[in-house]
Design goal:
single chain, 247 residues, alpha/beta, Rossmann fold, 6 helices, 28% helix
Length: 247
């Protein structure tokens, strides 16, 4: 069994967001970078659990990014995994990123590819589906459970008003979300081992980007809160009719 987990570098959820270059680039100065939580807590940890059940499983990590992503990749290696691959590209185009992942995956021949359901920065939720299409593999998104029996995967996913259980033959691409696994913290042994695990850097293949970023914008600032004394019910009703309706 060969498993590939896609790892993305994202800003910490508490980071203050700002933009530069006429609002076309994210301002990275002073930002704490982390592994995208959906990739780490659900995709990677579930892959580790599968590896723990079958010691013959080979677990690789892949990231499409610059050298500044390597500390994040090393943290992922500290959690587990046999080796990591970094495709040396800083593209923000989903098709380009998916193409780099698919090209590597095709050369190795993975049985299972796991991603998070989305990244917490761009929220594109498109990489998994594109990778599956480029590799001509089945794809299941919004997965909350994944079990393997030989070459068959049983995947539970969220649907409107309930859940759906599907049985799929490997190879397979799955986008994971909450419920798939419980978050782990790297231990000292894992941190030390990560220093010597192989991190391959490969150059990207030529791909024509399908999208480009025109500009970023912050959401409108929240309006102030008005406190109305309990005895002024009529004033509250007036505000709800006249001011709240206009928001």
């Amino acid at each position: 069994m060969k498993i590939l987990v896609c790892i993305s570098k994202t800003p910490d959820t508490t980071a203050k967001i700002a933009f530069t270059d006429n609002n076309t680039k994210f301002a990275a100065d002073g930002v704490q970078w982390i592994i995208n939580p959906y990739d780490e807590w659900y995709a990677l940890v579930r892959a580790l659990e599968l590896k723990e059940k079958d010691a013959s499983t080979v677990l690789h990590l892949i990231n499409v990014g610059g050298a500044d992503a390597e500390p994040v990749i090393r943290k992922a290696l500290a959690l587990g995994g046999d080796e990591a691959i970094r495709v040396n590209s800083d593209s923000r185009d989903s098709f380009t990123i998916a193409s780099q992942i698919a090209t590597h995956a095709k050369s190795v021949g993975y049985d299972l590819i796991l991603t998070g359901k989305e990244t917490i920065d761009y929220n594109g939720s498109s990489i998994g589906g594109m990778v599956a299409e480029l590799l001509d593999m089945p794809y299941i998104s919004l997965a909350t459970k994944l079990e393997l029996s030989g070459t068959t995967a049983t995947v539970t996913r969220e649907i409107e008003g309930g859940e759906e259980i599907a049985e799929v033959s490997l190879p397979l691409v799955v986008a994971c979300q909450k419920g798939m696994a419980e978050a782990r913290i790297p231990n000292m042994r894992g941190i030390m081992a990560a220093r010597t695990k192989q991190l391959k850097v490969i150059e990207p293949v030529a791909v024509e980007a399908l999208t480009s970023i025109s500009s970023f914008g912050l959401p409108p600032a929240k309006a102030g809160v008005k406190m109305i004394p309990a005895e002024q019910a009529e004033e509250l009703v007036r505000l709800l009719h006249e001011e709240a309706r206009a928001i």
